[in-house]
Amino acid sequence: MIACTLYDKLWNAHTIRVYDDGTTLLYIDEHFIHEVTSPQAFGLLSREGLDVHDGRSTVAMPDHNVPTDAMRRRRVWPCGQVARLHSNCEKHCIRCSPVHGRRQGIVHVAGPEQGATLPSGSVACGDSHTSTHGALGALAQGIGTSDVANILLARSIRQKRNRSLLISLEGRLRPGCCAKDVALHMASMVGAGGGAGYCMELGGGSMGRMPLEGRMSVCNMSIEAGARFSLSGADNPMLNYMHARVAHRHCHRAPCKMPMDAASDALAQHSRMVAMRADRIEPQITWGTAPYMSSSVRGRVPDPMAIPDPRYRSEAEAALDYMSLEPGMPLACLGVDFVFIGSCTNARAEDIRMAARVVSILGGRVHRRIRGAIVVPGSMASKAQLEREGVGGILTRAGFEWREPGCSMCIAMNSDQLAYRERCVSTSNRSFECRQGPMSRTHLASPATAALAAITGSVCDASSLAWT
Ligand SMILES: CC(C)[C@H](C(=O)O)[C@@H](O)C(=O)O
Ligand code: SF4
């Protein structure tokens, strides 16, 4: 028998048909939609006089532009794209977690949390961070709007098979370092487009010890290195995570069984491998306008003149200009105006607990130079859980704002925006120009680094805290 990668196994299991041009028609088990990329797809179907094939295989979540301010949310919502999502779902019998419902959340946080992601299944969503669900052993991918329409219509998508890139992590992470530091380090090693055409598979002992939520953060950011898919093989932590959630599965199908061979065969050949040592990864922060422009918090802003590749050199020059940073400046001690703890990368309960832990270790309150420090849980369920545990209280007593779930300042599609030229430490995944508001300056980092920045008013090394 030929040794197969997990990607190949899942791909083969979902293949409906292979065409002469080498493309494959893949079957999609689970389809998620949100308010931003679904209206065009519903519009396309209705213009063509077509109907949704089976609304029950789709789950809808309003997340991108819902206000996270409780008052604002109560007063005027649902409206705009969210109201259209609600009405499209009603019309086509699609389960929707309404904006005021207890199942609402960011689709990549609330979906897996509610057991809607099928391990060994195929998942698609009109959102590039759908790779997150690969942490549960699902063949999960972000798709474009026309594919959203195709899946609503025929539960299938036609595409080319990718290659497999093994991201191997061995050793133990230092105290104060977490999956987000791994993800940023991975992005800097692989480069902006280095993962294009690959499915990233997480491997190595350290990935195996990483909690499922951490693996989701790493899979979430594979697209930032160009990889549309990322995957983690089945193991006991994954099975335990799923079993704890299938009871809450809000789905018409029976709870899934995950085969334990849902992993790459021992002798499987990956097309490429990137090896990382966990014990050498320090807390990371981005200095530029892309996730791959990251370095250790204890490092210095790089000198573009020292970058041999002319394309990367000019990108670095433009980024430093936009971020108002000088080559050689130490990153630690950089003054910060705003802190955002949220997004589908880092708004799970574990992430927010880590932020609260920093606050408890340090004591004190949000620094007076910080204009705002907001914590936006990724789902109603994690928000309620954190409130029961007293985590919400720790953060609000320290001066953080405790918001309602949504994408919020990750994408600034509502009033959660930075002011002109403000500098923010953010736990999200993208830092391009104006992502968090006009001329906003974003430094991506872990929840620990973000909480530390809120209390000290500047970028600091989270591994220097007394974690034990
Ligand atoms: C709005 C949506 C299409 C987009 C994505 O696909 O990723 C958004 O979620 C983002 O993070 O930029
Ligand atoms: S939280 Fe950010 S990255 Fe995630 S889906 Fe929303 S906008 Fe996209």
UniProtKB/TrEMBL annotation:
Its cofactor is [4Fe-4S] cluster. InterPro entries: Acnase/IPM_dHydase_lsu_aba_1/3, Acoase/IPM_deHydtase_lsu_aba, Aconitase_4Fe-4S_BS, Aconitase_4Fe-4S_dom, IPM_dehydratase_rel_enz. Residues 8-457 form the Aconitase/3-isopropylmalate dehydratase large subunit alpha/beta/alpha domain. Heterodimer of LeuC and LeuD. It comes from Tremblaya princeps. Pathway: Amino-acid biosynthesis; L-leucine biosynthesis; L-leucine from 3-methyl-2-oxobutanoate: step 2/4. Catalyzes the isomerization between 2-isopropylmalate and 3-isopropylmalate, via the formation of 2-isopropylmaleate. This is 3-isopropylmalate dehydratase. Its EC number is 4.2.1.33. The keyword 4Fe-4S applies. Keywords: 4Fe-4S, Amino-acid biosynthesis, Branched-chain amino acid biosynthesis, Iron, Iron-sulfur, Leucine biosynthesis, Lyase, Metal-binding. GO terms for biological process: L-leucine biosynthetic process. It catalyses: (2R,3S)-3-isopropylmalate = (2S)-2-isopropylmalate. NCBIfam families: PRK05478.1, PRK12466.1. It comes from the Bacteria. One of its GO terms (molecular function) is 4 iron, 4 sulfur cluster binding.
